[in-house]
Design goal:
The chain has 360 residues and is an all-alpha fold. It contains 14 helices and 2 strands. It starts with 27 loop residues before the first helix and ends with a helix. Residues 110-124 have low confidence and may be disordered.
Length: 360
Amino acid sequence: MALPMESPISFANVGQVRWWQRGLFASQTGYVALALLVLIVVMHFASPYFFTEGNIQNVAKNFSFIAIATLGVTFVIITGGIDLSVGSMMCFSAMVTSMVMTGLSTPGMPGASLFVHMAADGKTVLANIPGLILLISVLAGLGTALIVGLVNGFCIAVLGLSPFVTTLGMLSIVRGLGYVVSNGRGASPGGPDADYFYALTSGNVSGVPAPFIYLVILALLMAVVLHHTAFGRHVFALGGNEKAAELTGVSVVRIKVEVYAICALAAGLQGIIVCGWLGSAPANMATSYELNVIAAAVIGGANLAGGIGGPLGAIVGCVLLEVIRNGLVLAQVNSYWQQTLVGVIIILAVLVDRVRSRMI
């Protein structure tokens, strides 16, 4: 006698994901992007000037002035670290670049004779080679940033110091050095390459601000590095579980040093770009910028505990902050409210992400 066939057991709930756990809502970045879209729509109706070409260019340029540094900080945050020295590093790198550019272009200044007085026997005067002094000056500024980043990485990765304490101390050291080398007066780019400098840092390419172009290129590069290279996988592994990463063969010390070097280089480049926008590098330049940079990264979805973050979230966070600032200006609201709103948004972003995580 044949046994009756049993109906197959159906696991209808297996593999199904609730709507708030997939697609756009799968990460904090998605929620923030949605909030940004809502805010843009509100601003469109609140001010007829928001979607004008000039204002859109201003928004694109202004958020780029912190977004490049935010990309660098995101690397550090993914590993579970923090860098509070980015604002001071922006200032010092811009100051070194400006001082070297002016010094190499001015007769009588240290090192100037090498570049200005070499035409005696018909040899090429290096000062007259377009862009050479600019290249040397920018490399000097970035080299200074790299040294600071390597020192941060060494203290944190090799000596085992706290990232918070180390970078907080470096914030004061670098800011103090900026005041020392400039006697508190700051510095301005000068010389035959000054026009090139301003064109590259604050100019436009077919109506698109140059800083925005740099941001897009660096964000794409960061995405490739994080998601398609062994270094990127090691960065995420380090932030997810440092001990486990070390046991699997990840060079924890090397990765930490490299991410702090990358962060410092990004901050240095950002400072040079801002210097071109301001036309100088004042001694108090980028004061408290580290707060805006870290806030943008956290709002965009980077987790201070490590293991989560990316270029898209960093950019979305920066755009949100700039749209808020721009909207307050257009609405003629006291700009001091910006800091209050930024704090509220940070708390709400973290709260939404925590609630979503508990519902998984």
